[in-house]
Specification:
With about 100 residues, this protein is an alpha+beta fold. Helices cover about 25% and strands about 10% of the residues.
Length: about 100
């Protein structure tokens, strides 16, 4: 039997939260920090929360895989830092959105 060794790769360093910042300041920073390529899902979840924009179902970190980011204009390259082209949809609402 062949054993495969896996190395855990930490792709991001977490920053210690500045306790002096207000919630509004943190949200403002998130909205004005340009997303990295392919990083819009995490940013959308941070901005819009773990809630489906259509049916209103709430999710948590364990079930967040059931949420998808829908690009309102259909352009996956249009990822403004304020998240205005995104809405979080559950997989069911997302399928319904693209079914017609």
């Amino acid at each position: 039997m062949r054993r495969t060794s896996y190395r855990i790769h930490r792709s991001r360093q977490t920053k210690k939260a500045d306790s002096n910042k207000s919630v509004a300041e943190i949200v403002r920073e998130l909205q004005h920090t340009p997303p990295k390529k392919g990083d819009y899902r995490e940013r959308s979840l941070n901005i819009h929360g773990f809630i489906c924009a259509r049916c209103g179902k709430e999710f948590d970190h364990k079930t967040s895989r059931l949420l998808t980011v829908h690009h309102k204009d259909g352009n996956h390259l249009n990822n403004p830092p304020d998240g205005s082209n995104w809405e979080n949809l559950c997989v069911y609402c997302h399928d319904e959105e693209h079914s017609w």
